[in-house]
Design a protein that fits this description.
alpha+beta, Amidase signature (AS) enzymes, globular, 11-stranded mixed β-sheet, 2 domains, Amidase_CS, 500 residues, two-stranded antiparallel ribbon, Amidase_dom, 14 helices
Length: 500
């Protein structure tokens, strides 16, 4: 049975006990406005489900139930006074990495297990201003630096579809929470697929906004400070169980920081390029030159391609306008890892320099690109950034001919938990062949390196019954275009299904 648009009751046995847990935010807003339910009731029901199921999933790492119930009562009183806001009374969760005054912000790092920020992150402030009821915080990997979500403080988040597999990272707690009915919406972040990969692994929706579209102040490693800095490659974004809910939450999140660009600028996102599926021009990719795509993920891409063709869209399988995928992956690796090691201790940095100096000049592997990026000079970074601008220009030319690109998010569905402390020793199994663990980031980096928006959508399931997602990459600052395409595809191929 589907939840979402067609039915908010994925399990018959929950009727009467947990009527609203899998309803969309849009449905909840309509029910609240109609007086069918109160925010206090929704919040109690969400808390009951978390208390029932979170021990097995471990998605919620910091519950905030007392304040949630108080916020729900406030929302009901506000509605009784005639107020209405986009998320008024709707239960949501927040990724641990966002500062929330009165709750610890750890990023999974044991030395900061007791760090308590003094004020809310700008996105938490926006959620609260929109009327949302925050149920608590969701789990992350150590320092947000993994494709899984586990740490020494809060333990491991399991995939709701198969507890022996990862929910993804670094927004894995948020994706698992949504798939489990713990709130209608969540907010996460994405530097290396951290919104999109958990969505793909857990069968939900997520949107990586255009770089710079949504302010990220207060999503900062503890102990801060929470300055209005826009970090290279990294974005914050919405997660939900339908495409329309993504748009609802993005409209709350989008906009410049009031301390910087917001002093002078107001956001006006352009409308989607098209409203009907048959008007879209789409490039479909399922092969990457540096890493194979599993048969399960290729099948998911194929289901989306078939739905596009059946809906009358113009679909192409290749284009000379597509920027070079190998160079894009190399550039992404270099920019990503040059940033990730910038705060390493000097001794660790010097060890990396020694290892990089031993690389053969003709070693053009992804691992070599990563190591070279880790020890970039400023001159090296400027050169890489200049090449990125050429790629951005190439994408602008491509999006003059196409409206969106459909491609994988990672090469496989969710993989079994792998907690080897040395990620270099981990491997990803693609149809029986092993590849270096971080090579699976190639597809996520395709949108991240140039800063393009990308919407993750469910695209059916693997033969083992695991969710498979794809991403819809759109033109810079035209986020409504892939979001609208996601909506139209949801109507054609179905959307979120609750795990049995």
């Amino acid at each position: 049975m589907r939840s979402g648009i067609s039915c908010p009751l994925p399990h018959a046995h929950t009727v009467g006990f947990m009527k609203w847990n899998f309803s969309t935010a849009e449905q909840l807003a309509a029910a609240l406005r109609a007086g069918e339910v109160t925010s206090a009731e929704l919040t109690d029901e969400a808390i009951a489900r978390i208390e029932r199921d979170n021990d097995a999933i471990n998605a919620i790492c910091v519950p905030d139930f007392d304040r949630a119930r108080a916020a729900a009562r406030d929302a009901d009183r506000a509605r009784a006074r005639g107020e209405d806001r986009p998320l008024l009374g709707i239960p949501v969760t927040v990724k641990d990495s966002y500062d929330i005054a009165g709750l610890p912000t750890t990023w999974g790092m044991p030395p900061h297990r007791d760090y308590m920020p003094a004020e809310d992150a700008v996105q938490v402030s926006r959620l609260k201003a929109a009327g949302a009821v925050v149920l608590g915080k969701t789990n992350v990997p150590l320092g947000l630096q993994d494709i899984q979500s586990f740490n020494e403080i809060y333990g491991t988040t399991n995939n709701p579809w198969d507890h022996g597999r990862t929910s993804g990272g670094s927004s894995g707690g948020s994706a698992a929470a949504l798939a489990s009915g713990f709130g209608a919406l969540s907010i996460g972040s994405d530097l290396a697929g951290s919104l999109r990969t958990p969505a793909h692994f857990c069968g939900i929706y997520a949107h990586k906004p255009t770089l710079g579209l949504a302010a990220s102040r207060g999503m900062v490693p503890p102990p801060g400070p929470a300055l209005p800095v826009e970090h290279d490659l990294a974005v914050v974004g919405p997660m939900a169980r339908t495409a329309r809910d993504l748009t609802l939450l993005l409209d709350v999140m989008a906009g410049p920081d009031p301390l910087t660009l917001g002093v002078a600028y107001h956001l006006t996102l352009p409308s989607a390029r098209h409203e009907r599926l048959r008007d879209f021009r789409v490039l479909v990719l399922d092969e990457h030159p540096l890493i194979p795509t599993s048969s399960a993920v290729r099948a998911g891409v194929g289901r989306v391609a078939d739905a596009l063709v059946n809906g009358g869209a113009r679909v192409e399988r290749d284009s000379p306008l597509l920027p070079d995928l190998t160079e894009a992956a190399m550039l992404y690796r270099q920019l990503l890892f040059s940033g990730s090691v910038a705060r390493f201790p000097v001794e660790a940095y010097e060890q990396l320099r020694t290892r990089a100096a031993q690389l053969s000049a003709d070693d053009q592997s992804l691992d070599a690109a990563m190591l070279r990026g880790m020890v970039f000079s400023h001159r090296d970074w400027i050169e890489a950034n200049s090449r990125r601008e050429l790629h951005r220009h190439g994408w602008r030319q491509l999006f003059a001919e196409f409206d969106a690109v459909v491609c994988p998010i990672t090469p496989t569905p969710a993989f079994p938990h792998d907690h080897n402390p040395d990620p270099r020793e981990r491997r990803i199994d693609i149809d029986g062949v092993e590849y270096p663990y971080f090579d699976q980031l190639a597809w996520a980096g395709l949108a991240t390196m140039p800063g393009l928006p990308a919407t993750a959508i469910p695209a059916g399931r693997s033969p083992e019954g695991l969710p498979v997602g794809v991403q819809l990459i759109g033109p810079m600052f035209e986020d409504r275009t892939p979001l609208r395409l996601a909506e139209l595809l949801e109507q054609k191929i179905g959307g979120f299904q609750a795990p049995k």
